[in-house]
Amino acid sequence: MIVRLILLVALLNSLQARSANDAPGWNLYRSYARHVCRMQTEMKQQIFFRASSEEKVVALTFDDGPLGRTPSLLRLLKKHNTPATFFLLAPQITKAKALQYDDPLFEVGLHSYHHLDYRKLSPQRVRRELDRALKIFHRHGLHPRFFRPPYGMVSRVLLRELKKRNLHTILWSIDSQDWNHYRGKRLIHNIVRSLAPGSVILLHDQSTSLNDISTLINAIEEAKYRIAPLSTLLSKGNMLPCP
Length: 243
Hints:
CATH topology: TIM Barrel
Number of helices: 10
Oligomer: single chain
Number of strands: 9
């Protein structure tokens, strides 16, 4: 009986993950897919996943910076005249590093103070993490409008506190899986095969090589898509996974 129950739970989890990726334009890692599919609709409606648009426009987003490779990444994006949004970890920001993003191509969002799963934090700790991070951002002249929770994990408490601070919660519709050691052709194929109008693509500063980023930009353009700032996509409305 116990074995049957375990198998049933595993099957249900697999079906949830698959259902999140059934519609065109969704490419979510399994644990993330299960997380968002279990989330109540009222919570999902407070989160931006993907633009509701017929225009072939997508956004590139990078997590976990600023890091050692970030300056080279920014130079590459400038060379390609490609906009991107960077979700930064507050302790890694200095005045000089903050100035790196002072370009019309780039937008900056908050990725937290510590890289923690907010579902496991007390309300007091959630508030402390957000306010401590925002204090550092503001000290260095950064005024983020976006927040991306580490691991893509949210809670009611987090969403409530973000709303109080006028921060838009941003997740994604395409996971590059660069964090999962996807490289080269495997990385590019994993992204391009799922492109759809309004896609938000998850990448990381340090995980993806500059050559892969350059190849990805060219592949997106060859697929007749335009890379736009995240704020442009936000203005087009939101599309939810597994509603």
